[in-house]
Design brief:
Radius of gyration: 17 Å
Strand order of the largest sheet: 3-4-9-5-8-7-6
Oligomer: single chain
Strand content: 15-25%
Structural class: alpha+beta
Shape: globular
Number of helices: 5
Length: 217
């Protein structure tokens, strides 16, 4: 959504019911963390991520089982640019002091991730990314596009961050250990097609968290 091109705005609903709801017209943006040159450099990855995921310029093949859509497959894409798009958003979330991103703290991985993004290497084994897309919500229009607070979690003993953008959710591995089993097979990689996993938004834990926070207000 290009919120700047209209009178629309975002409601910012805190999980704490004692805090007031605020509004935002351009999302949570920090103008102080990057110089113009760096912003332009990362903008190349931002544009590529937008073209693949939001604009749908890359042809997708539907993956279905028993009539249920399990996801989508994209064969012609640049794995390094797409992964660096997601990783660069996580890195920016780590270096800002904006309250929305306070649960993102990469610690010693912050510098390593920065060096990787600015390098010419295609992949760093300490990082990985799984892409999923929420189904359209039947409860509220565009509710599945809500940005929830990014946060760290552990899955099968491995450290990940959840990041939400435009109806997509990214599981980003920040760990020297490799993902296990299924996740290892669907991480973004130049060695295979891109798999976008379909997730039922109305049955998700994210929707339950959103409903609880909104209902508290």
């Amino acid at each position: 959504m290009d919120l700047r091109a209209s009178d629309e705005y975002l409601n910012v609903v805190p999980a704490n019911p004692t805090e007031r709801i605020s509004i935002s017209r351009i999302g949570d943006y920090d103008q102080s963390i990057l110089c113009h040159e760096c912003d332009q450099f990362l903008g190349v990855f931002d544009d590529y991520g937008k073209s693949v995921l939001l604009d749908g310029k890359n042809e997708r093949t539907e993956i279905s089982k028993a009539g249920v859509v399990a996801g989508w497959e994209i064969s012609n894409f640049n794995a390094s640019k797409l992964e660096k798009f997601v990783l660069s958003v996580l890195w920016r979330a780590s270096i800002t002091n904006r309250p929305f991103f306070q649960r993102v703290n990469l610690g010693p991985y912050e510098t390593e991730l920065q060096n990787h993004i600015w390098s010419e290497e295609n992949h760093n084994p300490a990082f990985g990314c799984v892409v999923a897309k929420f189904t359209r919500s039947s409860n509220a229009v565009d509710a599945e596009k809500t940005m929830l607070t990014p946060h760290r979690f552990r899955y099968e003993g491995i450290n990940y961050y959840s990041l939400y953008m435009g109806g997509y959710v990214f599981w980003i591995r920040v760990d020297q250990r490799r993902s296990k089993r299924l996740l290892a097979k669907i991480e973004v990689s130049s060695e295979r097609n891109l798999i976008i996993v379909s997730r039922d938004f109305d049955e998700s834990k994210e929707f339950k968290a959103m409903f609880k926070a909104a209902n508290a207000h």
